[in-house]
Structure formats: structure tokens, C-alpha cells
Amino acid sequence: MTSYKELGLVNTREMFAKAVAGGYAIPAFNFNTLEQMQAIVQAAVETKSPVIMQVSKGARNYANGTILRYMAQGAVEYAKELGCENPQIVLHLDHGDSFELCKECIDNGFSSVMFDGSSLPYEENIRITKQVVEYAHAHDVTVEAELGVLAGVEDEVQAEESHYTKPEEVVDFSTRSGCDSLAISIGTSHGAYKFTPEQCTRDPKTGKLVPPPLAFDILHEIEKKLPGFPNVLHGSSSVPQDEVDTINAHGGKLPDAVGIPEEQLREASKSAVCKINIDSDIRLAMTAAIRKHFDEKPGDFDPRQYLKPARENMKKMYIHKIVEVLGSNDKL
Ligand SMILES: [Zn+2]
User: Which long-range contacts (CB under 8 A, 24 or more apart) does 205-210 make?
Assistant: First the structure.
């Protein structure tokens, strides 16, 4: 048993309370590699932002859960070394699919877990979420639950169709499950292809897809039912077209990749949304830098030669998200 407190990590409770009161959102960045971890910490320290480092099932399979836990501990120590006296870093399980997995993570240094029962019947979702909450709270770990279904593909998580969260269910669900935050479905989607061309319109000038807007009416309805309760948006990458263009200009093939416009996420951050998950944009930033590097310097074969610009480009993206989209800068 390793408590997250021994690792210097924090849970989300105070962080979310401040974010809700302050009208901003906490960035939740998925990580699998050393370079992502370094870039996340550098960006968080430079902007004085709290940060959630999250681990999906895919990340655990790729990098090993134990290694990722020590990387999160390393992130805290690295932040201190970079001059941050009191780093606010959460290690969060993204899309936990069973009580057993959530428990294993709580026992192994995670400070926050998500139980995603969104594909289960409503009562079953409440029952298992509550079971996770009881175990987690006994260890001062916070729990994110999910109500409503997001479309798209994210590691092993995928759904064909989305179902918006029903505002009439949120009070009952959060009260009976005891969850600390709630992932809601208001039109975001996992992956770099969030919408089909048929769901979008096309900008006549650029030929690029314009996605349908988020369901702000549902968000405001949820906010009215649960004032001050922390809501979470998954699948909230914006799929920046300059990175997509760089990838495509250097041998890549990502036609019609499309995301959630940043202005809409900024608006959501100002209201009841206090955690925004961003993964695909970082993948795009890393891939764009590496493709460009290989194209321009075909003789390079030392991984540091291409991972360094990849790390720089990710850091730029993290800082951009923190300052321009979430507004979590200068909050430490
Ligand atoms: Zn997700």
C-alpha cells in the first residue's frame, strides 16, 4: 500500500473548489512517456498552474502502472527542482472500468480515480460508483463518475453513438453515488475525428470542417440543478489545424480531422466545468514535430534529436491550453 501523500501528490477536492469559485478549469493531460511528463511539468511550473496527470488503461498497458506512478512522484520532485515550492499535481486514473482496478490504483499511489460506468444501466452505474467512492474516501482519494455517453475512440474506450447527459438525473446520481465530480456528455467526443463530415458544415474559404456546437443549454441546465458541483469534459481536444497541416505536409494522412473549437472550451471553463481532458492535441503536436524533423533531417537517428523538438512542441501546446483555454495559470 502506497498512499499518494507519500509521493507528494494531492487529490482534486480543494483544486476543484477553487476552480469552480474562480471560473477556470484544471487541465487534465494524459501521459505515457518521459517527454510528455517533462513537458507537462515544465508548462505547469512556468505558468504556475495546478495540473492533473492522468493514466488510461492504454497507458498502463504501454508504460506499466508502477513506472507511471514513479514518474508522477518524479514529476513532483522535478517541479520542486524547477522552483515550484508547492506543486499541485494529481495522479488520476482515466476511465477505470471496475471497482478492482480503481482499488488497485488507490492502493498504489493514485490520488484520484475515475469510475466510468456510463455504458452500464443507470442503477448499476450508481452502485459501483458508490462502492468506489466508499473505498476511495476512506483513503482521502477523490472520485470522478460519468453520466451520459461520449462518442469516439479513446484507447479501449469507444462508443458508436453519444447520449447527452440528462440534467434531470444529475442530482439523484451525484447524491446517491457520492462522487466528487461528474463527467458529462454535452457534445464533446474522444479522438482526432470527433465528427463525421456529415455532422459538420464546411468553411467555404478553407475547405475545413466546422463542427456542431457544444450543448451549452444542457450544461447550464446541469449547473442550475447542481450549483457549484464540479463537472468534467472528456474528449476536449481542438485538433489544431496547423499541426494537422504540418503532419499532412510531411507524409502524414489525417484528412478531415476535427475537434472542439477552443472558444467553446474557454466558455465552458468559465462556468460549471472545472476539469478538461486533453490528449489528442498533444499527440498531434508530438507527431507533427517528429514528422517535420525526419523530413528535414533524414540522416538523424538518435531519438534525442527528434524527441527534443517533439517535447518543445508539446510544451508549447500545454502552455497554450493552460493560458488561452483553461485559464488555470497563476493559481498556485
Ligand atoms: Zn475520456
Answer: 206/241, 208/241, 208/258, 209/256, 209/258
Q: What is the DSSP letter of 258?
A: B
Query: What pLDDT, in 10s, does the model give residues 97-136?
Result: 999 999 999 999 999 999 999 999 999 999 999 999 999 9
Identify the three-state secondary structure at position 270: helix
What distance in angstroms lies between residue 154's CA and the mean position of ligand 1's atoms?
A: 7
Q: Which helix (H) or strand (E) holds 93?
A: strand 89-96
All 3 cell numbers of residue 33? Answer: 512517456
Q: How far is CA 331 from the centre of its chain?
A: 19
DSSP 204: T
> Is 295 an active-site residue?
no
pTM flag (> 0.85):
yes
Distance CA 129, CA 98 (A): 9
By the 8 A CB rule, do 194 and 239 touch? yes
How buried is residue 312: exposed, middle or buried, by Cβ count under 10 Å (0-12/13-18/19+)?
Answer: middle
- Distance (angstroms) between ligand 1 centre and the Cα of 193 equals 14
Measured in angstroms, how far is the CA atom of residue 164 from the centroid of ligand 1?
15
